[in-house]
From TrEMBL:
<keyword id="KW-0732">Signal</keyword>
<feature type="signal peptide">
    <location>
        <begin position="1"/>
        <end position="29"/>
    </location>
</feature>
<protein>
    <recommendedName>
        <fullName>Lectin-like protein BA14k</fullName>
    </recommendedName>
</protein>
Amino acid sequence: MTHRSKAVAILAATSLLTSLAAMSAPAQARDGVNGALFGGLAAGAIAGGIIANSVNSRPPVVYREVGPPPPPVVVYPECHTVREPLYDAYGEIAGHRNVRVCD
């Protein structure tokens, strides 16, 4: 239980106890004080209920199928490029080419 939900529960319990204590007193009209008290308690109970329900609203849990495992990691040997001569049909060097050599 989080601190916020504990605080809301304590607030709701306090509001309930206060309203029960106010109900047990004889009903008297003292310049509208009782009406304001009950109106405030009702508003607090409604607001507390809304807050209590919104605190615990979490997104729904989504279950997914587990697919195939990822392919294994392939470790390639160290590779480098080497410049080799390129020969023509007569055996003469016609240029160079880069060749990848892996050890």
